[in-house]
Amino acid sequence: MSIRKMISLHPDVAGHNNEPLGNAVHHAMYCAMMCMSCADACSAEDMDMTQCVRTCSDCSDVCSATARLGARRAGSNEAVLKDMLELCARVCDACARECEQHDHAHCKLCAQICRECAEDCREAAMTISA
């Protein structure tokens, strides 16, 4: 089962190019969980990881909200969706930069998913006319 498939089956989006939005929603769902897990792992590290915990937690929340907005296709709120996708990309970039400063494997993995999510969110935002 795939959220990409679910979005493409929605009656209100038939005939539209749903692939970029489906990819963004897919990555945002995963990124939300990866960031939450990274924040949890950072909180268990022996060093002060307060900023990384905060950045990952914020990113998790923004990704989660973005995924929910992107999966709702009934009606129209394109301006908000486009703004949210753009915000998600910026927040993911910030989280990736923060995580890339640390040598922890969980931070490296988090940075990678954040970069992928940011790219997909930017691509999806470009396909939405607000």
Describe this structure in words.
It comes from Sphingomicrobium sediminis. Pfam families: Csp. InterPro entries: Csp_YhjQ, YHJQ-like. With 130 residues, this protein is mainly α. The chain has one domain: Up-down Bundle (Substrate Binding Domain Of Dnak, Chain:A, Domain 2), CATH 1.20.1270. It has 5 helices and no strands. It has helices spanning 3-9, 19-43, 50-71, 78-99, 105-126. The model has no long low-confidence stretch (mean pLDDT 91).
Total domain modules: 1
The largest sheet, given as strand count, sense and whether it forms a barrel, is: none
CATH class: Mainly Alpha
Number of strands: 0
Query: What shape does the CA trace take?
Result: elongated
Radius of gyration: 15 Å
Provide the structure class. mainly alpha
Task: Indicate the percent of residues in helices.
Answer: over 70%
Order of helices and strands: HHHHH
Discrete helix count: 5
For the record, the CATH architecture stands as Up-down Bundle
* N-to-C span: 30 Å
Unreliable sequence segments = none
Mean pLDDT: 91
Question: Beta-sheet strand percentage?
Answer: under 5%
What would the CATH topology be?
Answer: Substrate Binding Domain Of Dnak, Chain:A, Domain 2
Quick gist of this model?
The protein has helices spanning 3-9, 19-43, 50-71, 78-99, 105-126. It is mainly alpha-helical and 130 residues long.
Main attributes?
130 residues, mainly alpha, Substrate Binding Domain Of Dnak, Chain:A, Domain 2, 5 helices, 75% helix, elongated
Write the layout of secondary structure elements.
Layout: H1 3-9, H2 19-43, H3 50-71, H4 78-99, H5 105-126
Helix pairs in contact: 1-2, 2-3, 2-5, 3-4, 4-5
